Automatic annotation (TrEMBL):
Gene3D superfamilies: Homeodomain-like. Transmembrane segments: none annotated. InterPro entries: Homeodomain-like_sf (IPR009057), HTH_AraC (IPR018060), Tscrpt_reg_AraC-type_HTH (IPR020449). One of its GO terms (molecular function) is DNA-binding transcription factor activity. PANTHER family: ARAC-FAMILY TRANSCRIPTIONAL REGULATOR, TRANSCRIPTIONAL REGULATORY PROTEIN. It comes from Gramella jeungdoensis. Residues 196-294 form the HTH araC/xylS-type domain. Keywords: DNA-binding, Transcription, Transcription regulation. It holds the Pfam family HTH_18. This is AraC family transcriptional regulator.
Amino acid sequence: MKTAHIKKHTISDIIEILGENPQYDGLYIHISKNKFKESPISYPFRSDNFTFICISNGELNIQLNLLKYSVKKNEAIVVVPNSVVQVLEISSELEIMTISFSLDFLLKNAFNKTDLDALNFLMTKNISKLILDSQEIAVVKNISHLIKTKLNDKLLFKNEIILHGFNLLMYELASIYKKQINTSEQSFSRQEELTLRFFRILEDNFKSERSVNFYADILCVTPGHLSKVLKEVAGKTASQLIDDVVIMEACILLNNPSITIAQIANELQFSDQSFFGKYFKNQIGISPSKYRNLKS
C-alpha cells in the first residue's frame, strides 16, 4: 500500500492554490458556480482550519479521515481542524460555497460565553452531513454573500459588520445542526455506528495499539466481523485503516525536520527506530530517511 505525502494546508495555502486574493485575517469565503472541471487539490491534505462546505447544485465526493461522503444539492458538511481531507470527485455543474476560518479567528471574535456554547457543534469528532431546506440554504447563502461583499470594502464599521455577520452565520448553522443531529445519529445503520465508534477509538489509541483484537474487544465484536463491516462501510479492513492512520501521522512528523526519526519512532510507540523503519518501508515502499529526503 502506498500512502501519499500528507501536507498541512492553512487558509492562506488554499487561497493561493485557488488563485484568489486574501480577504480577511483568519476568514475566507469562496462562492462559485461551474468553476472547476476537476478538483484543484487532488491529493490528501490535513486541514488547519474549520471549513463549512455547502452545495447548492451538483455533487462533491470527499473523504474525511478515511470515511467517504457524497455531499449533494442542499447538503452541507463541516470539516474540523486536523482532518485529513481528499476531494475524490466533483460534478461539472457544481455550485459550492465554503466558509473557512481559523480557531484563532473563532476564539477572538466570539463575543461571549454564549457564542462559544452555541458553537460547540464545531468541536465534535463525529462528522455529520446536514440537509438544508430551501429557506435554510437561502439564509446561509444570503448571509455569506453579505459578509463576502464587505470583506474588501473600506467602510466605517467594516470590522463590526463582518464579525457580527460571521456570528449571525454561525448561530444559523448551529441552529440547523442542533435541530438535525439527534435525528441524524438515530438514522445511522448498525454498521455505520460501529464504524464511527471504531474511528473514535482509533483516533485516541492508534499510537499505542495496532492490534485489530484490541479494537474488536472494546467494540464487543469479533475481529473478523469488525473488518467485514469496515470493508463494507469504509472500503478497507481494520488492519488497513489502522496502518493508514499510523502512516499518515508518521508522514506528517517526518515533514518536520526538527524531529529525529528516533523521536518519531518513540512518539508512535514503536519498540525502536529499526522496527519503525521496517514498518514504514513495508507500507510506503521506502525508508523513513529516504522519504524525508525526497520531501525536503
